[in-house]
Amino acid sequence: MNYKNILFEIENGLGRITVNRPSKLNALNKATIQELHEAFTAAEDDDKVKVIILTGTGEKAFVAGADISEFSEYSVEEGKELAARGHELLFNYVANFPKPVIAAVNGFALGGGLELAMAAHFRIASENAKMGLPEVSLGVIPGYGGTQRLPQLVGKGRAMEMIMTAGMIDANQALRYDLVNHVVTQEELLPFAEKLAGKIAKNSLVAVSAAIRAVNAAYETGVNGFEVEIEEFGNAFGTEDFSEGTSAFLNKRKADFPGR
Question: Catalytic residue at 11?
Answer without folding.
Answer: no
